[in-house]
């Protein structure tokens, strides 16, 4: 039981490049989330998927897109990376009707 | 607009001392208040949580105190240990179909021997 896994762990992009961050969970959770963490800013919600087939914007969605591929997988795409998107990205999941969220180990992204 | 204000930003405590981190919120619709612990290079992990129908919850050395009228809650770590050195985040959740946790900005705790 790996919990929530994220790939890659580290990534460096040039401005304008695109990439997809991958997230998978093996806890049969219905809901999945993408956060970004910046120094002194806490965690801010980018997008979430309450259940398979649905996605909704969070607090800071601009510049990102998401895909809930199936119940296990939720990906985050940066179409044209900007230096302001340099951050640590966390994926999380939770069971239906349960508030507790379980976080992955994070992806550290640097955009130059 | 920050809905959960957390203080202090950083905290240094001697081993065996009490660590206290405070949070205040504005939205009275919040009905669940978790604390997360994050070690360097790791994702946050749920530490302890409380609902507003109780004023205190204790799990081992960790206690949440909740003051509904003041819209404040705090985390107390008794007998603090160097292994408790981490960043702590308070959060709030409003339920009612919302899936969004609102996090404080975090407190970096250092417990020195």
How is the topology of this model organized?
The complex is a heterodimer of chains A (112) and B (113).
Chain A: E1 4-7, E2 10-13, E3 19-25, E4 31-38, E5 42-49, E6 56-57, E7 64-68, E8 74-78, E9 87-94, E10 102-103, E11 107-111
Parallel strand pairs in A: 2-11
Antiparallel strand pairs in A: 1-3, 3-8, 4-5, 4-9, 5-6, 7-8, 9-10, 9-11
Chain B: E1 4-7, E2 10-14, E3 19-25, E4 33-38, E5 45-50, E6 56-59, E7 62-67, E8 72-77, E9 86-93, E10 101-103, E11 107-112
Annotation keywords:
heterodimer; A: 112 residues; mainly beta; seven-stranded mixed sheet; four-stranded antiparallel sheet; B: 113 residues; globular
Structure commentary:
The complex is a heterodimer of chains A (112) and B (113). Chain A is mostly beta strands and 112 residues long. Chain A has no helices and 11 strands. Chain A has strands spanning 4-7, 10-13, 19-25, 31-38, 42-49, 56-57, 64-68, 74-78, 87-94, 102-103, 107-111. In chain A, strands 2, 4, 5, 6, 9, 10 and 11 form a 7-stranded mixed β-sheet that branches. In chain A, a hairpin with a 7-residue loop joins strand 9 (87-94) and strand 10 (102-103). Chain A is globular and about 40 Å long. The relative contact order of chain A is 0.34. The mean pLDDT of chain A is 94. Chain B has 113 residues and is an all-beta fold. In chain B, 0% of the residues lie in helices and 54% in strands. Chain B has strands at residues 4-7, 10-14, 19-25, 33-38, 45-50, 56-59, 62-67, 72-77, 86-93, 101-103, 107-112. In chain B, the strands form 2 sheets. In chain B, strands 2, 4, 5, 9, 10 and 11 form a 6-stranded mixed β-sheet that branches. In chain B, strands 1-3-8-7-6 form a 5-stranded antiparallel β-sheet, with no helix packed on it. Chain B starts with a strand and ends with a strand. At the A-B interface, strand 5, strand 9 and strand 10 of A face strand 5 of B.
């Amino acid at each position: 039981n790996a919990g929530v896994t994220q790939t890659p762990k580290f990534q460096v992009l040039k401005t304008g490049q695109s990439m997809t961050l991958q997230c998978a969970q093996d806890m049969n959770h219905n809901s999945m989330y993408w956060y970004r963490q910046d120094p002194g800013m806490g965690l801010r919600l980018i997008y979430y998927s309450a259940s398979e087939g649905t996605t909704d914007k969070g607090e800071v969605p601009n510049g990102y897109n998401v895909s809930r591929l199936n119940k296990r997988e939720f990906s985050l795409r940066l179409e044209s990376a900007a230096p302001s998107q340099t951050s640590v990205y966390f994926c999380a999941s939770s069971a239906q009707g349960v508030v507790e969220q379980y976080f992955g180990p994070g992806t550290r992204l640097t955009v130059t | 607009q920050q809905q959960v204000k957390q203080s202090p930003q950083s905290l240094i405590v001697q081993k065996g001392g009490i660590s206290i981190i405070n949070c205040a919120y504005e939205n009275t619709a919040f009905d669940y208040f978790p604390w997360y612990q994050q070690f360097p290079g790791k994702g946050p992990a749920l530490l302890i949580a409380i609902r507003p129908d109780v004023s205190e919850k204790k799990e081992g050395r960790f206690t949440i105190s909740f003051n509904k009228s003041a819209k404040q809650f705090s985390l107390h770590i008794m007998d603090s240990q160097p292994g408790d050195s981490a960043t702590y985040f308070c959060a709030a959740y409003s339920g009612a179909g919302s899936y969004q946790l609102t996090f404080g900005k975090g407190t970096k705790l250092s417990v020195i021997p």
